[in-house]
Please model this.
Amino acid sequence: MKELIDRLEAGQELSKEEYASLISGFDSQLSEYLFEKSCRLRQKFYRKDVYIRGLIEFTNYCKNDCLYCGIRRSNKNAERYRLSKDDIMLCCHEGYDLGFRTFVLQGGEDPYYTDEKMVDIISSIKTGFPDCALTLSVGEKTHESYKAFFDAGADRYLLRHETANPMHYSKLHPSGLSWQNRINCLYDLKSIGYQVGCGFMVGSPYQTAEDLAQELIFLKKLKPHMVGIGPFIAHHDTPFRDEKSGTMELTLFMLGLIRLTLPYVLLPSTTALGTIHPLGREKGILAGANVIMPNLSPVSVRKKYLLYDNKICTGDEAAECRQCLQNRMKSIGYNVVTDRGDCVSPSMQL
Ligand code: 5AD
Ligand code: FES
Model:
């Protein structure tokens, strides 16, 4: 098994079977072996810098009904909210003062925010904060919408593909949603010129080691600038309420494998990882991640953007999270930096 990791480190490609054997057979010793290499590689490109992204969850209305997600349309218990442009600008101001140079506008697929409204919000943020990168995460749109947002100044787009296996996708989503359309969106976003982030959940219902191996093959093909992964965590008001969560160990192992597979990639240590273990985010960094995405949304709406149960930081002010993360990163010898945190070599990724 170590030999497979050595081959990855040397830049060689692994077959799906080889990835699957690593994923189904890993233990703590192999994880240590992997993390030593993934950290060394991450350090080569990004030193011990950790980039922060200010996440603004601006709407929890969603027209979709993904089976795993707490803000799915059918969840009648979700208390819905929308932030106005002024609310959003206030979040950015607060974030800027705290040293954020990337803002991420994330929301459910909410038709209330027409292209016109989005373009207005995007251009206001880019005019107000010209030295900041703006990331959108608002789901599947048409080419025209993506192009309009890009022309208005959006720099990056996050669209987790959720699974690289179309059969698995159909078990996680209602039949109206198409895996192929989601993948097409990712290629479309890249062709428009966005820095693109994809991603998936670890330990989602029905996922196999082969599916996770497929993820790495898919990443090698798409070559995204960023990959967001976190453990699946059940939400009590969804059809997956009784499904078991993904594990921290497997999520960390996947982070290490992603770092070796795409050395330059921006890799967040996610809130979901911090939710299943108190030191999950620190461990994510120590497995090869280099990005953290704390919340800038007003505390009044935090608890309402509940994708899964027990989400952390829902009661903390942005400034508290910022300080908390700085301390956490310092405790493991890493530095939170005030920087847009672009991918070191976008051309290598494309
Ligand atoms: N557990 C973990 N992650 C989830 N997401 C949505 N629901 C859950 C859940 N129950 C993730 C999805 C989505 C991202 C915004 O959050 O991958 O793309
Ligand atoms: Fe939010 Fe620690 S990061 S309280």
Q: What stands out?
A: The CA atoms of residues 96 and 122 lie 16 Å apart. Residues 18-340 form a domain with the TIM Barrel fold (CATH 3.20.20.70). The pocket of FE2/S2 (inorganic) cluster (ligand 2) is lined by residues 294, 313, 316, 320-321, 324-325 (CB under 6 Å). The chain has a mean pLDDT of 96.
